Amino acid sequence: MLLGVDVGGTFTDAVLVADGKVVTAKAPTTPGDQSEGVMTAVAAVLERAGRRAEEVTAFAHGMTVATNALLEGRAARTALVATEGFTDVVALGRQARADLYRLCAAHPAPLVPDELRFPAPERMTPDGPLRPLDANAAEALASTVAEAEPEAVAVVLLHAYRHPAHERAAGAALAAALPGVHVSLSHEVVGTFREYERAATTEIDAALSPLLGRYLRRLAERAREAGLPEPAIMQSNGGLIDVASAARHAAWTVLSGPAGGAAGAAFAARAAGIERALCLDMGGTSCDVCVVHDGAVGETGGGEIAGRPIALPMLDVHTVGAGGGSIAWRDAGGALRVGPRSAGAVPGPACYGRGGSEPTVTDANLLLGHLSPDAPLAGGVALDRSAAERAIRQLADTLELEPRACAEGIVRVANAEMTRALRLVTVERGIDPRDHALLAFGGAGPLHACAIADELGIARVLVPRASGVLAALGLVVAPRRRDAQRTVLRAGETLTAEAVAADVAELAQAARAALGAPEAELATTFELRYRGQAFELAIEAAPDATPTLLRTAFEAAHAERYGYCDPEQEVELVTVRVSASVSAPPLAAAAPTAAAPEELVGPTVHALPESTVLVPAGWRGTIGPDGTIDLQREPA
After folding, report:
1. When you count CB atoms within 10 A of the terminal residue's CB, does the N or C end of the chain come out lower?
2. Cβ atoms 93, 329 nearer than 8 A
3. What 3-state class would DSSP assign to 186?
């Protein structure tokens, strides 16, 4: 019996898989303490399945604790220890504007204020120590930091990705001077070069880890009391790690929630035999989009959350503030806008009857008849049409529109935002969306999928039967995984097959040891560039790839991305990343469903257990034996 629980902005989803049967349940998210909503959802799914907690063999969890804390600016009191002269590296950043044409736009302030930045009397070069950090200096530094009474400390010293001795010495001194205080060392968190990105990521890791650690300890305790196994936590890279590791490194989990949805989308695409799919995960607060090719979601070596760089492997998921609870409003120019502010779980959309008074996308869908007021939403939420109409009428009056026209406008604006997000991950990257299927999931995704497909010229939409809880199902099928990465900067005479093999072997040993699985499967990524270029291309290759094979693959990728390659130019191997993973137990085939209609002809609305499918005019579809809805646009 496998259990997956995903915390969203509005609902917490639970999936229980046993003997080929998938049982699902939802419960309202509890923002004050997400673990309460998690345990409520678990109790609901166990009751629905008629099973006991003691029967669960594995428990996987995806959450938004770290993400929300970063977005809301909630962080522990954090100190930064950096090489003397480099304590302001995060504040200085890349000296690039936050927005090219808005001079008033600013980057987010560093999480560590000026008074909590401390210089370390040391200097490390790429070739070794120039100014050693002796034991007395490390102890004096730790004593100075301790006087500031921080809750967490980030240690970022120059070139620690290659020579971590000084960071380890500083970390040991800080641990002795500040027992119980979290310490993040950059070579453990990131392990790659680029001082700003490494420092910003380590700062995030230190600032969020105490908050996440408290939540995970509370959740683990509640799970233990309920008779459940200790939860495994979803990382941003789509793999699961143990609670202790996640609590030590919150930066690894900042995209935990979206990663579960992406993993579920990849699983659904493989199950449907789709090689090329665009995934639309529209929940209550946001919408996540990604591309699935050959049954896998692409990965990136880093990203940005709330304007802050994260130099860690993560699934290539793009998020926009367009969910069912996104609030519609009138901007200063008189235009109708939707999101990114959300009604969330408390109070929720106006139609939930929990005190919300602002119009949301869900209210608009209810007013337009896309949702039935007589059928409660998953989690037992009853819908109040009159409350939705009152909320939308207030906005409609300010826009000088009829309420129904305003509701139609809200849906169109939300669709436009999600269409823009899908264009960002396709058209703007040279991918034609028209030869992809649109895989729609999340509680609200199937309501909007066909309209978005029309905008992108997509002729096929797939909606899994478990679309409303697909992110939780993604947790069940996700592998356990640990990554190890290091900047090696090899070129010319140092870029040899023996050197590359040694780098891979060392990182593979570290990744497998961290995972506790000596026989774990390995996947390797090599980041290469032409000498003189500022950024690299990530090339996936076998662990035993030779420099010749890497160059061939790099030049092919370079030609595809930029339209040319230069056989005469020297190639540099910048970073090596090794992933060790252990696959989840395979799911048994689900039993075919019965009673559902075999054909859907638009316009119609079809209710699923945790979501609703809107089939507009000009679309028709069939329901497969496993409950998957396959919609296709009728020829013009």
Report:
1. C
2. no
3. helix
Residues forming a β-bridge with 572: 529
Q: How many C-beta atoms lie closer than 10 Å to residue 527's C-beta?
A: 21
What span, in angstroms and rounded, lies between the C-alpha atoms of 361 and 322? Answer: 8
**SS3 of residue 394 by DSSP:** helix
Query: What is the spatial distance between Cα 182 and Cα 204, in angstroms, rounded to a whole number?
Result: 12
129 CA to centre of own chain: 37
Give the strand order in the sheet containing 182-185: 117-120, 78-83, 152-156, 182-185
Answer yes or no: are the C-beta atoms of 578 and 488 closer than 8 Å.
no
Helix (H, G, I), strand (E, B) or coil at 72: helix
Determine contact, residues 30/9, Cβ cutoff 8 Å. no
Question: Contact 325/391 with Cβ under 8 angstroms?
Answer: no
Locus of tokens 């970022």: 156
Spatial CB neighbours of 400, under 8 Å, sequence gap ≥ 6? none
In a 3-state reduction of DSSP, which class is residue 452?
helix
Alpha-carbon span 290 to 279, nearest angstrom: 5
Give the Å distances, CA to CA, from 181 to 176, 178, 320, 425: 10, 6, 35, 40
Q: Where are the alpha helices (DSSP H) in 9-157?
A: 34-49, 65-72, 89-92, 135-147
Backbone angles phi, psi at 599, to 5 degrees: -135, 140
pLDDT digits (tens, 9 = 90+) for 400-425: 999 999 999 999 999 999 999 999 99
Nearest-angstrom CA–CA distance, 302 and 312: 5
Q: How far apart are CA 86 and CA 108, in angstroms?
A: 19
Tokens 């093999």 -> residue: 501
Residue 24 in contact with residue 469, Cβ under 8 Å? yes
Measured between alpha carbons, how far is 357 from 335 in angstroms, rounded to an integer? 20
Instruction: Please check whether the domain covering 481-582 is classified as CATH 3.30.1490.
Output: yes
Q: Mean pLDDT across the stretch 600-605? A: 92
Cβ burial of 610 (10 Å; 0-12, 13-18, 19+) is: buried
CA distance 255 to 66: 8
In this prediction, residue 64 carries a pLDDT of: 84
- pLDDT tens digits for range 40-81: 999 999 999 999 999 999 999 999 888 888 877 889 999 999
Which of 238, 212, 215, 231 is closest to 3 using CA atoms?
Answer: 231
